[in-house]
Amino acid sequence: MTKxxxxxxxxxxxxxxxxxxxxxxxxxxxxxxxxxxASWNDELLTHGYSPVTLAAYLRSGHxxxxxxxxxxxxxxxxxxxxxxxxxxxQHGSAESRPxxxxxxxxxxxxxxxxxxxxxxxARLYASSLTIAFAFLxxxxxxxxxxxxxxxxxxERHLAGQPPIGILEHLSGTxxxxxxxQNWQSExxxxxxxxxLSIFLRQDKSPESKPLAAPHSQTGA
Length: 220
Prior knowledge:
Helix content: 55-70%
Shape: elongated
Order of helices and strands: HHHHHHHHHH
Number of helices: 10
Radius of gyration: 23 Å
Structural class: mainly alpha
Largest sheet: none
């Protein structure tokens, strides 16, 4: 075996971070499904209704609303963070671009095809990360809105109240309370890592400055 082959990372090494994060996500999502299913059935039983199957629960407003309510805030947070860090700086933070940057270092390898194509393809590619997060946010926002409305319809049915339209639901406080309670927490988390990375370190993490770096150094 050649030296190059010996030093080539395996598939698992090359994708370890993504695979582990996906596994953690899958475990917690499954836990949410099981806990949410049990919680919703408890509420149904309290009102004298029969419990629903797991498949039926996955189509319920209770599950859809809770799931996309959280996803929506995550995509908003990441999209805004990606966009804001283009122009804004935080002195001393590892999460900020330096105030005075050297020329961008690009590793050897094939140039992405949109860059080679140039024109509109290159312009679109230059903002593709923010655009992707924007689409993910809008999609999650719509699904949260629909799920939240359907969940309110279910709750009104259990309470013997008449149904309402989706516009009436969106003009009320419930939907916006669900959204804003998550949005504010996401930006608090981003603020925390931006500010804490000025003074604190995690050895070998790309989200941290080197241990010996002064607090005044901006950028990892």
